[in-house]
Amino acid sequence: MQIESKKGCENAHEILAVPGVDATMIGAGDLRMELGLPPVQDGPEPAYQSCVQQVFKAAKDNGDMPVFGFAFGPAFIESKVKQGYRGIMVTSDVTALVYKQMADLKLAREMIQQKEDGLNNTGNDKAKEVVGKINALSLNDAVIESK
């Protein structure tokens, strides 16, 4: 059961007492936005920490159920572990897609730059290799588009 509002925190004991609920997740970004705070993964603000502690107390009181949360990067992971989170998501679908796209764009820029550099130096074997990779990518795109 995900809790991501002040009202959810205030009612966490009742929410987590529902039969069949055996874990909870704090939706930090949404909770923080509702509290008028920046939508980051964690923070020291008293209003936010009070809500988090309400959820942890309710989880403990309802069978010591695990609390889950997002933690992107070592600093946030360490913070969540110290706070007592027993389940940590280290990425999300949107984050994974964005980083994959960023990596592909970086590769494309590097390959294009190498191709341009290679055209200015026609004896460069590396440039020929890069041109081959670019052409292969173009062929793959054409195959995908034709399907």
How would you summarize this macromolecular structure in one to three sentences?
With 147 residues, this protein is α/β, with parallel strands linked by helices. The protein has helices at 6-10, 12-16, 28-34, 46-61, 74-83, 93-119, 125-146; strands at residues 2-3, 24-26, 67-70, 87-89.
Can you tell me about this structure?
This protein is of the alpha/beta class and 147 residues long. Helices cover 63% and strands 8% of the residues. It contains 7 helices and 4 strands; from the N terminus they run βααβααβαβαα. It has a 4-stranded parallel sheet. Helix 6 packs across helix 7. The longest helix is centred in the last third of the chain and has 27 residues. The protein is elongated and about 70 Å long. The chain starts with a strand and ends with a helix. The relative contact order is 0.10. The C terminus is likely disordered.
Question: What secondary-structure arrangement, pairings included, does this model have?
Answer:
Layout lengths: L1 E2 L2 H5 L1 H5 L7 E3 L1 H7 L11 H16 L5 E4 L3 H10 L3 E3 L3 H27 L5 H22 L1
Parallel strand pairs: 1-2, 2-3, 3-4
Helix pairs in contact: 6-7
